[in-house]
Amino acid sequence: MATKLLFGQVPMSVMTGALALFTSAGVLLIHAVPLFHPSWYAGYPPTTVILTIVLFAVFSVALILVPLLCGLFALRGRRWFAFVATGFAILTMIGVFDAAATFVAGAVAALAGAVLLWLPSAREFGRAAERDRRSRRGLVEPRRTVR
Question: Is 52 inside any structural domain?
Fold first, then answer.
């Protein structure tokens, strides 16, 4: 069964949080591009240069994919995206103290996106989307205790 994005039903907090995470991914991509410039590695042995570039590439892909996927899953109403986005924001904020301006901007955008995804309207959207997915699969809603 094909799942579609719920743009018509997405609250503003989720939309803005996802856009902040997309911005974070874009800014971190801009930050990663100069790491692959060959002039930075002049005078080093080729094996060291290759290993360094491969490690930078793996780290950069992870650094770009995490906020991008969190934003996409947030728009689809998944519930786990806020935890991953928060963990990513915390880890990037740790690296801010000795970093370039583009990394700082990406970390701040990730933090803003994570904060927006914890707002009550975003959490309710996740719960409603989960109920909708469960009802489409024919699963019954678990009983809730009365408080």
Answer: yes
Q: What is the mean pLDDT of the chain?
A: 83
Helices (H), 45-119: 46-76, 81-94, 101-116
Task: State which H helix or E strand residue 140 sits in.
Answer: none
Domain that holds residue 86: 12-135
Q: What is the DSSP letter of 119?
A: S
Distance CA 129, CA 67 (A): 20
Which region, left, alpha or beta, applies to residue 10 given φ > 0 means left and ψ of -120 to 50 means alpha?
A: beta
Distance CA 9, CA 5 (A): 9
Residue 114 included in any domain: yes
Considering only CA atoms, which of 39, 18, 21, 17 is closest in space to residue 29?
Answer: 21
Token pair, residue 79, equals 């519930």
Task: Kindly report the pTM of this predicted structure.
Answer: 0.79
Q: What is the total count of domains within the chain? A: 1
Q: Model confidence over 117-140: pLDDT tens digits?
A: 999 988 888 888 888 877 777 765
- Reported as type and span, the H/E element at residue 77 is none
